[in-house]
Amino acid sequence: MIIKYKIKLILKPGKATPTPPIAPILGQYGINLMEFCNKFNQLTKNIVFNFIHTKIIIFENLKYEILLGTNSLISLLKETINIEKFSKKPGIEKVNFNNFDIIKIISKKRFLHEKKKIFSIQKMILGTLISVGINYE
Questions:
Q1: Whether residue 115 has pLDDT greater than 70
Q2: Among 122, 57, 135, residue whose Cα is nearest residue 92
Q3: Contact 5, 29 (CB under 8 A)
Q4: What is the C-alpha separation between 17 and 134, in angstroms, rounded?
Q5: Domain that holds residue 41
Q6: Are 48 and 12 in contact (CB under 8 A)?
Q7: How far is CA 18 from its chain centroid?
Q8: How confident is the model at residue 112 (pLDDT cuts 50, 70, 90)?
Q9: C-alpha angle 53/87/110, rounded to 5°?
Q10: Domain stops at, among 50, 68, 86
């Protein structure tokens, strides 16, 4: 089969409905929204993450595959720090974060990035921390 489109979405597991934001995104590609939502909800009914990375591969005959990813780095950071929301003003309001917290996150994310060195994963996490307004000690 020939791949026509690749779409990346971040969705709540088990809670897909044929309403925005899913409907406008997938509707333009001609996908049956009820069928997609039922299939996605069936695949993700046992997943406990808040959000999950999802890749949808659409073929020329409008058949599609759903590839499920993992929890996002932002969600892992929120769980580790125990906060609801990040700073609305990054660089001004700051939340403290230490090296031990980064090691816990690296141990969770390491299996996803097998070919990357631990230092590279640490730099990726630090970049994300800076962009959401978290002060690293």
A1: no
A2: 135
A3: yes
A4: 34
A5: 3-68
A6: no
A7: 20
A8: low
A9: 40
A10: 68
